[in-house]
Amino acid sequence: MTLQQWCFSFRGRLGRRDFWIWQAAWLLMLVLLFTLAGNNLLDTQTAAFCVVALMWPSSAVLVKRLHDRNKGGQWALLFILAWMLMAGHWSMLPGDAQWVVGRFIPTLIMVCMLVELGGFAGTPGDNRFGKATQAVIFLRRRTPDYQ
Fold first, then answer.
1. How would you write the pLDDT of the chain (147 residues) with one tens digit per residue?
2. Closest Cα partner for 80 from 50, 47, 106?
3. Sign of CA dihedral 141, 30, 20, 56
4. What is the DSSP letter of 140?
5. Second label for 92, Cα 20 to 30 Å away, from 9, 39, 60, 108?
6. Which residues contact residue 41 at a Cβ distance below 8 angstroms, ignoring those fewer than 6 apart?
7. How many C-beta neighbours within 10 Å does residue 69 have?
8. Stated pTM of the model
9. Domain residue spans of the chain
10. Which residues cross the membrane (predicted)?
């Protein structure tokens, strides 16, 4: 799999190693963006634009990893649900319900999804989403042309 397929295509399957590589790269990019924006070295709107631009490759990696687990891409909507619950204003709920709906449930969803996608092996061999996983080729070795 090429870097372009890894980051931009929703087709195919992706193994755990490449999923975790993306998660680490994504986390580093976010830390860098927020550090630069927090120190006024980068405009906040530019940082927000970069975060939005990272949503497509994040979604592509997530969906391909779900495909490797033989699950459809619609399962990725659980992350959106978790984000919406976490971003909601739940003061209208009584007592501990605010914490349960606004913090506990979203955290539970995210942890379960990360364990599912990052901890469990994909289906062996071919499945309904394609052939067995192929590692991402990060650096292409050039072979000399002998003519």
1. 888 888 899 999 999 999 999 999 999 999 999 999 999 999 989 999 999 999 999 999 999 999 999 999 999 999 999 999 999 999 999 989 999 999 999 999 999 999 999 999 998 989 999 898 888 888 776 666 555
2. 106
3. negative
4. P
5. 108
6. none
7. 18
8. 0.84
9. 3-119
10. 20-38, 44-63, 75-92, 104-122
